[in-house]
Amino acid sequence: MIRDAASNELFTILLVIGLVIVATAKLIAPKRFHDFIYVVGNFKYLKIYSREQKFFDKFDALLFVNLILSASVFCFIMYQFVTGAKALSINFMFKLTFGIGSFILIKVLIERLIGSLFEIDKLVDTYIFQKISYKNYLGLLLLPINALLIFNLKPSLTIVYIAIGLLLIVNVIGLVTSFKSHLSVIKNGLFYFILYLCALEIAPYIILYKVFIAK
What we know:
Helix content: over 70%
């Protein structure tokens, strides 16, 4: 059930780092962390902290780093499940982590650039804050999911579907929440909204699928 020692050791280190990062975030902002825990069922966090957001926020930055690490571990577990690969090198994990982090950051920068070009910076900043908050929440969920997949559960098709389904549900809730809060703007520019969805929310993932899965 437990993976080979080399993989297990590196996974354990990454999980511990993730836990330390989350604990640090809770330590520097305990009330905000408490509100963040309930972000999926309660919009209080989004309403309060979107008004207080900064260009660089320590709390968001810490949770974002955990997201990247946790997502990298999860992606490699899925890669192992699909391909049957056993070896895990630090170099490969570094490339995977760097790729995931770069992918998310590039998307955010492009969205900010679009906001600046169309002079809707405030709207885009709020939208990005909401999306990043839900993505960071996914990073939090991935900690126990990764721990179970590594140390207790041998991945099966059912377990994989459940894990991915749970993550997709949270991600969809985040997108729907963001779109709902900007419904009037979307209605006034439905064509541009559909164009945005295709260009920045759907196309990048299709490209990733073609590069890493379909080849």
